[in-house]
Design the sequence.
């Protein structure tokens, strides 16, 4: 089994110029925890709910006020994203995907087109667990 068979194709991405507030709203509205950050169509980073959790907007609001919290949320995602992104290609074996998820201690990996860094998919630990569940169920589907 390869990444292409498990990934979510054409995932939502944000431009590197997007604000943290824009990305946060998008992630909340779509119930996603990871969003690839692109610049000119190429992957430049990954923003996760963990990255957003580091911001501690509540503390900023309490200590510095609403203006400081608004300023924090207006910052570019490029300031909070992980730039050293672990990624895979569509043909990457799922065993290798699992190894990268575990070794990198990340919840999702962008799937990029080789040589272009264009994001063509995203594969998360949930995708891997669903595939495992399907195998264990013998293809009977979920209950």
Sequence:
């Amino acid at each position: 089994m390869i990444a292409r068979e498990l990934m979510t194709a054409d995932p939502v991405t944000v431009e590197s110029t997007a604000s943290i507030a824009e990305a946060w709203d998008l992630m909340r509205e779509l119930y996603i925890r990871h969003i690839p950050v692109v610049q000119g169509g190429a992957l430049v980073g990954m923003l996760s709910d963990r990255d957003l959790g580091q911001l501690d907007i509540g503390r900023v609001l309490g200590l510095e006020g609403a203006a400081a919290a608004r300023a924090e949320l207006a910052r570019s995602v490029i300031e909070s994203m992980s730039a050293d992104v672990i990624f895979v290609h569509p043909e990457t074996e799922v065993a290798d995907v699992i190894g990268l998820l575990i070794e990198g201690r990340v919840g999702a990996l962008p799937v990029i087109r080789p040589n272009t860094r264009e994001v063509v998919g995203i594969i998360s630990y949930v995708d891997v667990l669903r595939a495992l569940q399907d195998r264990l169920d013998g293809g009977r589907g979920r209950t």
